[in-house]
Write a structure and sequence with these properties.
The complex is a heterodimer. By secondary structure, chain A is of the alpha/beta class. Chain A contains eleven helices and twelve strands. In chain A, helix 4 crosses helix 6 and helix 6 packs parallel to helix 7. The longest helix of chain A has 18 residues. Chain A starts with 8 loop residues before the first strand and ends with a helix. Chain B has a single domain, classed as MetI-like (MetI-like fold, Orthogonal Bundle), CATH 1.10.3720. Chain B is built from twelve helices and no strands. The longest helix of chain B has 37 residues. Chain B is elongated, with a radius of gyration of 24 Å. The chains are: A alpha/beta, B mainly alpha.
Chain lengths: 330, 300
Amino acid sequence: MPIDMSDKTILKIEDLHLNFPIYQGAVHAINGVSLYVDEGEIVGIVGESGSAKSVTAMAALRLLPKGSFRLTNGNITMLGHDILKISEAEMNSLRGNQVAMIFQEPQTALNPTKTIGKQMFKVIQLHTGKKRKEARNLALCLLQDMRINDAEEILQRYPFELSGGMRQRILIGLAFACSPRLLVADEPTTALDVTVQRQVLQLMRAKARKTSTAILFISHDLALVSQFCDRIYVMYAGSIVEEGPTKLVLSAPAHPYTQALVRALPESSTKGQRLESIPGTVPKLTIKQEACSFRERCDHAHDLCVKIPSLVMSGVKTQKAACWLLEKVR
Amino acid sequence: MSEILQEKSAKQEKPIKKRSFIDWRYLWYQLTGSPLTMVGLVVILLILILVIFAPIFATHDPNTIDLRARLASPSADHFFGTDEVGRDIYSRILFGGRLSIAVGFGVVIVAGFIGTLIGALSGLIGGWFDTITMRIMDVVLSVPSLVLIMALAAALGPSLVNAAFAIAIVRIPYYVRLSRGQALLVREMPYVAAAQTFKASRWHILRWHVIPNILSPIVVQATLDLGNTILLAAALSFIGLGAQQPTAEWGAMVATGRNYILDQWWYSGFPGFAILLTATAFNIFGDGIRDILDPKQNAH
């Protein structure tokens, strides 16, 4: 396969354009998204609801229902495979073995009529071809890595007998069963409360570091991402508006949207003052964007903003942002 | 500190007991909270015991003719009296119950099994398979069931086995519809979607994910169906399409006893009461089971 990429890159999406045809026109969900995930790296995608974070991840894993979407442009490469071209069989062997996914809602991801043990053994046996005894040992190991103390007993339990945090830890543990190279976590902690959330993420991060698994972490929670990810992409209305190392992006945001997001964090406001919010709403995606999608809500909007800006270096290291202001600065 | 450690190690040493899928203790707890269901269960168990051990409980041979005691009224010798050739009605009811209840269970098991399988597959696969199956089921359902059963039983020839067969065929669509609807819900669950993404076979998804998750409404339907089926089998025997003379069967006994109903009420009265009692007990029990398995529905 004539793909020019370093071995370190696990996932690479280049200029992806994707829309969902509806009765009139289409919903332009992804408008030119480019991103990459390197080996062992924890990369976050942040954005508000409807900014196509999940759709991007689903497209990368080819999990969108066939025929429901139109891909107008772009390339997706995963572990040297061209995701858009390989057969279903090849895709199947990638999913689960090399790439794993963790879903939002831990309750519905487990079959309520089978014990945790039965389900874990089945998945492990299916993917690794291990014997039941080995599968059991691996399952115990995975649960212990997730700090589940009475793993033996947990294996005998049904999903509804466990708390949400426990279930999500089991699913995360299970996702590591085949030592995947990439783990896609789509808001894995949204259904959990804040204290459990932090604990689960710490476990996931520790496990990923141990096995040098890359994580693509999707979240709407900027504060969470800032503690968890090495590098982040900020998405807005189907395109990436800013990318760079987490610390840089959060300490010196270059794009007005990111700036507004950071200002809106409760941590950055002073006591007694109203929390800041961004006026307006996300533009309708049914109309193809010709202008900068944040123009309507932006404090710095000017004449140039009627055209779509491209991602440019913001001046610091690897931080990039898609804003005409940066062009002007240069 | 050491005490806590000791306690912990003691806890770990405790062997983990194998857990069954059905939580019997919970079921018992629920049953005690619903006396009517309890009554239904007790009656069913009594009937089952009486019927299964019919040779022990029967006082006479069900087919022995005793012309000296024709149409005898209930007495210490013949609890429920005798029929026109002097056969003991009590003993005939016990032995007849074997047939009636066997037909009930047989029909429900066969129809439930086939219907659930077809329905779950139909819901899981969808597409043209689903359309064709469901239209066939609609056709079966569109004909009044008793008429269809009678037609089928008559076409197959009058015998209890054929009657059971006819009832089973007509009952299948109810299970198909029920299980298809449930399968459609389960199909959308993330665990099924996940299984589909990694080459899990349809058979595996059906057996591992779909069937166990749709079983509880089907069990309820089956329990409620038991009473109906017993009633239907009796009805077919009553009109001569089921069990044939001289076989002891409740419906057939009511039918022949009809001729003597004004003078010898016990002849068709007791078999009729047996049918009523059994069907009611199964229906009450089925209703109770439904409430137990679906805690969202009962408001108490």
